[in-house]
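sorry for the late reply, my laptop died twice this morning and i had to redo everyting from scratch. anyway the thing you sent over, i finally got around to it. pasting the sequence first so we're on the same page, its 325 residues, then the predicted structure underneath. double check i copied it right bc i was rushing
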Amino acid sequence: MQRRDFIGLIAGAAVWPLAARAQQPDRVARLGVLMTSRVNAQSRMDAIQLGLQKLGWIEGRNIRIEYRWAVGDIAEMRAFAKELMNTQPDILIVHSSIAVQAVMQETGAIPIVFVHVADPVGQGFVTSAARPGGNVTGFSNFEASIGSKWLALLKEIAPNSSRVALVANPETTPYTTFFRAVEPAARRLGVELVPATVRSMADLENAVGMQGREPNGALILLPDGFISTYREQVITLVAHHRLPAIYSVRFFGTSGGLISYGVDPEEPFGLVPAYISRILGGERPGDLPVQAPTKFELVVNIKTANALGLTVPPTLQASANEVIE
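ok and here's the structure:
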């Protein structure tokens, strides 16, 4: 058992371990960061460090930060979670659902602040968004209800789509939650939903290939660390099979995907420092509400639409945050 876990058990729910440490201004706080992707890694690290500096937490002076990246490898993620625990962190910052799962297996006492988690309540990370309880809080990046919006946008740009596959790795995203959220919209729009759970590139190639062989096939690529890690291969594969597809992250649309609709993935990294500072000041993570995204971006790629023989409606172009010619 880790020393801090032992302290948490002794203290009980009424006393938070960091409360006493917050009264020691000369102590160097330790922050562990576990990431699942190197996409925009430097800018995300900079956002965290700059935000901390503005709040008086200077790297190398009164705070020390340990970073680990486990790119698309669950076993490596768990190993890095154990490594970070050995640094005796005061707070853990974790990126994605699988990272939360990995660190929660290691501690029930050390504060955890997550980013890019789609369904923290449904996945059992927190009791509720308003009052998370326990040692976990953070910033969600999607609500399941966005699934109906993805399908509506896909039908708007590719109206003949009648067989739509939902693609993601169920080990790295709340797949069932999203599938159930899309079902009502699919019934309303007369679309057959096809489950396409993928755990490897071979699975992905098979799933996309099957859709490509069926008439009027299309894809919804769910928010997923696995999909994002292999984004270039995904875009190339989808283009090879000439399938209309909607993605959940902006960089897919700007990198050649037909259309993307989702949150600004960089926004929460600038918000994390405030929670770090409040927790280091003695506040309980369970009292800090999980924050939902407020900014969404629509990107439409006209070049890709033309290659697929699709005409983008003027209303869709007008509503887009960015149009790639």
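The radius of gyration is 21 Å.
thats about all i looked at so far, will dig more tmrw
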